[in-house]
Amino acid sequence: MNSKKKIEDVTIHESACVDNPVTIGAGTKIWHFCHVSAHASIGENCVLGQNVFVANDVKIGNRVKIQNNVSIYTGCEIEDEVFLGPSCVLTNVTNPRSQVNRHSLYEKTLFRRGATIGANATIVCGISIGRYAFIGAGAVVTKDVPDYALMVGNPAKQKGWMSRHGHILKDPDEKGVMICPESGYRYQLSVNNKQEQQLRCLDLDEEEPLPEELASGSKPYEDFKNKV
């Protein structure tokens, strides 16, 4: 017998539990032992791996990939094309106590477009993870993360910048421009009005999807890491 069932262009494994009402976009796949709670909203072409929990009122964008054993609690908002690695930990109360009911005080945590959260990383609630930021495996993130930032360690600290294709950007020229070895896109460092460094792509707006010819990898990471 087929172990999957398909409802309105959404594939839901027979072991999963999906409460009503929920909104789930076409092409999304929900795998073994997942639980999607009432009033959650999941976009199109998402993948929820084994044992994923989505709490009430959570909003998940399009083309989001959630690996095994991830719980997404009320207060989390996940934009398009975010990657949540295996067993990463999300939270929604800074000072939890079993004796104190803080259900009305859930804090908002925003995962902006294209961000990657590595396996076993912990994201403390009430912060924003920037567009295309890359959180390394096992990192503990306690404050806002800029767009494209590479964060590692406990507590997490910025160790560099990552391109949209997931490569460390190196050796800025005199104008602060660095080049992704896979896409060839140029990224430029500048300073904002808060005197903080920021990175922007010169060749593609941060809200635009990748062109089709650059949306499929054909070479392993090792082929690129020493090119810049």
Characterise this structure.
The structure is a single chain. The protein is an all-beta fold and 228 residues long. It contains no helices and 26 strands. It has strands at residues 4-7, 10-13, 17-18, 23-24, 29-30, 35-36, 41-42, 47-48, 53-54, 59-60, 65-66, 71-72, 76-78, 83-84, 89-90, 109-111, 116-117, 122-123, 128-129, 134-135, 140-141, 149-152, 157-161, 177-179, 186-191, 197-201. The strands form 5 sheets. It has a 10-stranded mixed β-sheet with strand order 1-2-5-8-11-14-17-20-22-23, with no helix packed on it. A 6-stranded parallel β-sheet has the order 4-7-10-13-16-19, with no helix packed on it. Strands 3-6-9-12 form a 4-stranded parallel β-sheet, with no helix packed on it. Strand 1 and strand 2 (10-13) form a beta hairpin. The chain is globular, with a radius of gyration of 19 Å. The chain starts with a strand and ends in a 27-residue tail after the last strand. 33% of the residues are buried. The model has no long low-confidence stretch (mean pLDDT 94).
Write the layout of secondary structure elements.
Elements: E1 4-7, E2 10-13, E3 17-18, E4 23-24, E5 29-30, E6 35-36, E7 41-42, E8 47-48, E9 53-54, E10 59-60, E11 65-66, E12 71-72, E13 76-78, E14 83-84, E15 89-90, E16 109-111, E17 116-117, E18 122-123, E19 128-129, E20 134-135, E21 140-141, E22 149-152, E23 157-161, E24 177-179, E25 186-191, E26 197-201
Parallel strand pairs: 2-5, 3-6, 4-7, 5-8, 6-9, 7-10, 8-11, 9-12, 10-13, 11-14, 13-16, 14-17, 15-18, 16-19, 17-20, 18-21, 20-22
Antiparallel strand pairs: 1-2, 22-23, 24-25, 25-26
